[in-house]
Write a structure and sequence with these properties.
By secondary structure, the protein is mainly β. It contains 5 helices and 13 strands. It has helices at about 5-10, 40-45, 90-100, 105-110, 195-205, and strands spanning about 20-25, 30-40, 45-50, 55-60, 75-80, 85, 125-130, 135-145, 150-160, 165-170, 190, 215-220, 230-235.
Length: about 240
């Protein structure tokens, strides 16, 4: 698979929607997770990320403008022991609760489908990072319609064992802007991951469309110790 320029992928796409990047730093010492949200409507743009324990949640920036919380207010990131869960919806809780009962990542998502926001039927994208005894692996998932038809749900899981240093994978909800919005297609995209959390945060935030970007979360986790650094950037301040 060709390694793509993440900055170019983002800057050349006005509306990839919500996106997850998971990988490993170039020096091989840290696991990396990033999640961003974008919005076209007032309801979607009226959000910020706030820390919630070891995870984060979305919150209305101006509560008076919040019209429908069902698909915009959720916990994108939760931590269960040595597992970090990152998703674009309330399936974060589904994965957390299922894995707490010893279900696999894939089994947890069997009870979920794409979002009920026709005509877009936004895909549910999810990722999980597992760090144990100095080892690290991750997986990503997408639940989507069959070419826009909500009668069929397509389920894809991508598992990455012993990920290579300096590499990551990027998955997002929409191919590009449109009406309705076309769902992401294919495997997660292979991208480069640097050593610096601030460099990576700046790259992501500066590459996202200025009008549509809303919030960004980035976390670097030390694979040996489990200690982590987090960056949160909100357009609404």
């Amino acid at each position: 698979m060709q390694k793509l320029d993440l900055a170019a992928e983002l800057s050349n796409n006005a509306y990839p929607g919500r996106g997850i990047v998971i990988g490993k730093t170039a020096d091989g010492t840290k696991a990396v997770a990033a999640y961003f949200i974008m919005g076209r409507s007032v309801n979607s743009r009226n959000r910020i990320f706030v820390e919630d324990g070891a995870g984060i949640r979305t919150q209305a920036f101006d509560p008076s403008k919040l019209t429908d919380p069902s698909l915009v207010i959720y916990a994108p990131v939760r931590v269960l022991g040595n597992k970090t869960i990152v998703t674009n919806g309330d399936q974060t809780d589904t994965i957390y609760e299922g894995m707490d009962k010893q279900l696999t990542f894939e089994q947890c998502l069997r009870s979920r489908e794409f979002e009920p926001d026709g005509p877009n039927f936004t895909p549910r994208i999810s990722g999980i990072l597992h760090i144990e005894n100095g080892g690290y692996n991750y997986a990503m998932s997408i639940l989507k319609t069959s070419n826009g038809c909500p009668d069929s749900c397509q389920r894809f899981t991508f598992a990455y064992e012993k990920p290579l240093a300096g590499e990551g994978h990027f998955i997002h909800t929409y191919l590009h802007d449109g009406d309705p919005l076309p769902s992401f297609e294919g495997e997660p995209k292979l991208v480069s991951v640097p050593d610096s959390i601030d460099q990576f945060t700046d790259l992501l935030w500066s590459s996202l469309n200025e009008d549509n970007k809303v919030s960004l979360f980035v976390r670097f986790i030390d694979i040996k110790t489990g200690e982590y650094e987090t960056r949160i950037v909100n357009k609404n301040q």
